[in-house]
Amino acid sequence: MHVATFLQDLAGGGAERVAVLLMNGLVARGERVTLILARREGPYLDDLDPAIELVDLGNRRSISSIRPLARWLRSARPDILVSHLTHVNVAAALANRIARAGIPHVAVEHNQMGQNYALLTNRSVKAAYRLARFVYPGISRVVSVSQGVESAVLAFTRGHPHNHQVIHNPVVTDGLVALSGEAPEHRWLTDGAGIPVLLGCGRLHHQKGFDVLISAVRKVLDERPVRLVILGEGPLRPQLEAQLKSLNLDDHVDLAGFSRNPFAMMRAADAFILSSRWEGLPTVLIEALACGANIVATDCPSGPLEVLEGGRFGRLVPVDDSDALAKAIGASLDMPLDRVSAKARAADFTLDRAVDNYMALFAHLRSRGGTSAL
C-alpha cells in the first residue's frame, strides 16, 4: 500500500511528531510511504525513517501548495492520502478534488478547533478554518485524536459523524521507554539536594497555562521547598521571565528550553504537571504516563479526563485555578500515585496499536473506493 502524507513542514510541534511516528510505523510494517512537504524544514526531518520518500513542493505555505500537490497526486496516485492539522487538511482536500484521482483522504485533527480559531491572526489560516465546514463533509474520513477533539470538530464544522472517528495518537514506543532510562539532563535532578522537582513540558504559549503553574509554585513555596523545570520554547518566554522576576522565583523555576530527551526527566521528576487551558490529546501527558510519572493535570478540554480515566491515573484540577493546582501539587508530593499503574495505562497508546487502527481504516477506505460510509 502506498500511503502519502502531506504536511506544511516538520516544525517541532506535537502533530508533526505524531505524523513522523505514524509514518515510521507504517514503514516498519512494509508499507510504501511518501512525505510531501510544502517546505522542507523542521527538526523532525532527522527522525524520519530513511525508507520514507520525501517530496519538497518548495512553497512557504499549505495554501500555495494546493496546485503542486494536485499535480503530484494525479501523477503518483497513492492508495491513501493523509494530512494533519486543519489548514493543511483543507489544502489537501482541495488538492485531492482538483486532482480528480479518487484517492481516499484521511484528515487528522489534533486540537480544539474553536479554541484555536479564536486565537488565529493569520488570515489565510483563518480562511482555511472557515472553509473546513464546507470541505470536511467530502473527506473520506476525519480522524480526531480524542473524543473531545471529535466533539469540537463536529461543533465547529457543523458536521455529521458519518465520516468521523477517533483514533488515539501513536505515542509510546520502545525508543521512548529506552530514553526514559537514561540519566536526566537537568542539574536539579542530579545534584542530590533533596528538593522536590516538578516538570512541565510544552510550547511557551497561552494554551499551556504555564503562567498559572508558576503562580501555583509560588504558593507551594509558602509551605515547602520545591523547584520547577519547564521544557519548551515559544512566544511567551519574555512574559514568563518577567513573571518569574516579579514573584522572586528565578532561583526556583527554570525555563530550560527544548530537550531532545524529556523522558528521562519525566521519569526522574517528583511530579509531572500539565497546566493547559485546552488540548487535543496531550501527547506529553501520555509520554509522562509511559515514564511512570506522578501526574497532576488540569481537566481541560480535551484529553486529560480521557487519558487519566477521570483521575484514576493522575490528579485532575480545574483550569486557571492556581490555588487548586498548588493544593494538588502538595498532595502529589505527599502521596505519589502508583507509577506501575501509570505505565500500564500508557500501553493503550502504543505505536503498534495506532498503526493497527490506521491500517484497518486504510484497508476499509480502499475497499469502499474512498467513500466514508461505514
UniProtKB/TrEMBL annotation:
Q: Which domain of life is it from?
A: Bacteria
Q: Does the keyword ATP-binding apply?
A: no
Ribosomal protein as UniProt keyword? no
Which molecular function GO terms apply here? glycosyltransferase activity
Sorted alphabetically, which keywords does the UniProt record give? Transferase
Q: Entry's Gene3D superfamilies?
A: Glycogen Phosphorylase B
* CDD domains registered for this protein in UniProt: GT4_GT28_WabH-like
Pinpoint the Glycosyltransferase subfamily 4-like N-terminal domain residues.
Answer: 13-174
One family name in Pfam for this protein: Glyco_transf_4
- Name of the molecule in the record: Glycosyl transferase
What species is this protein from? Sphingobium xenophagum
